[in-house]
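User: Design a sequence. Structure:
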């Protein structure tokens, strides 16, 4: 029974073509068009299904083509999250993401990102969400390029199903439109029809395991990447300059200094009482903590500067390696 299900060919998870009024048969294998017309403005130029270009791992800028596997991987892959899947239990809950109106209630800014592995990652005041690419809303593209690749199929299906949770009500739909998460030609009625078909899709076992979890806390992803995988920059560094790095750590140092000041003041008051005058243990503790409060900030500053030097050296080495790889290896996929 299970073997027969595994051998069953993959099919598109929806039938409705939300980018046009034409409906297609799920079983057809017609190649997807490179352009789609805007029915809301018939006189306008056709809208491309694919991005203008994409960036390879080497940093080359190439034309985005549907038959380019590297392009599809760059658009859909969540390999960085699958690499640490066993740690995701401390990063997020195994549940669907909250709707967009609830993100607003939590005062989170919706930040569009084109990186699939940043989709639904969040920090205290923002959440990253990948806009739906037009080609993922084309049935022909699924038949031609995704149904034959279970890995890409699972990533694309999990991504689309995450939107069924993000856009539940019409208010969510308009928030998504304002944030440019949806193509402009999609209407609310077409979206409702699409969601109905996505939720009726029975290929849930084919969804990429990343989408077992919904929203992922970015700070914890950074910690896992730094301490578990040894990635100095973490998953997504929030520091864009060395000044930002120094300022963020100095803020933590100021908090530590304020706490030690409060403790020292309390000890000073305690030692002034009659009860504490003959208490040798309290006197030794106060003396030890006084020495600690003098040395700890100095040591912390030394550690911060040491980390800053390590970061500078790391970035320099990474830049030299990238330069050597960029200009010595022959270019491919052109």
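Assistant: Done.
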């Amino acid at each position: 029974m299970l073997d027969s299900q595994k051998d069953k060919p993959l099919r598109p998870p929806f039938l409705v073509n939300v980018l046009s009024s034409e409906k297609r048969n799920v079983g057809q294998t017609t190649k997807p068009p490179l352009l789609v017309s805007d029915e809301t403005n018939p006189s306008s130029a056709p809208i491309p299904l694919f991005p203008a270009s994409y960036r390879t791992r080497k940093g080359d800028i190439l034309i985005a083509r549907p038959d380019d596997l590297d392009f599809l991987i760059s658009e859909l892959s969540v390999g960085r999250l699958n690499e640490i899947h066993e740690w995701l239990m401390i990063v997020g809950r195994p549940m669907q993401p909250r709707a967009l109106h609830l993100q607003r209630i939590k005062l989170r800014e919706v930040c569009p990102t084109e990186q699939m592995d940043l989709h639904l990652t969040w920090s205290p005041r923002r959440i990253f969400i990948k806009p739906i690419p037009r080609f993922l809303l084309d049935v022909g593209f699924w038949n031609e390029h995704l149904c034959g690749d279970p890995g890409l199929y699972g990533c694309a299906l999990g991504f689309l199903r995450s939107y069924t949770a993000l856009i539940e009500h019409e208010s969510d739909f308009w928030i998504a439109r304002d944030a440019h998460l949806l193509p402009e030609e999609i209407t609310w009625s077409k979206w409702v029809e699409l969601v109905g078909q996505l939720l009726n899709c029975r290929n849930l076992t084919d969804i990429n395991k990343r989408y077992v979890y919904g929203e992922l806390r970015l700070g914890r992803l950074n910690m896992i990447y730094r301490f578990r995988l040894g990635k100095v920059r973490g998953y997504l560094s929030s520091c864009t300059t060395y000044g930002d790095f120094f300022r963020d750590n100095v803020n933590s140092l100021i908090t530590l200094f304020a706490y030690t000041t409060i403790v020292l003041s309390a000890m000073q008051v305690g030692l002034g009482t009659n009860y504490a005058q003959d208490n040798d243990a309290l006197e030794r503790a106060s003396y030890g903590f006084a020495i600690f409060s003098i040395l700890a900030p100095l040591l912390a500053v030394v550690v911060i500067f040491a980390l800053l030097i390590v970061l500078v050296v790391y970035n320099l080495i990474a830049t030299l390696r990238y330069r050597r790889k960029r200009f010595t290896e022959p270019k491919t996929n052109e």
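Residues 1-5, 21-30 have pLDDT under 50 and may be disordered. The first strand starts at residue 35 and ends at 36.
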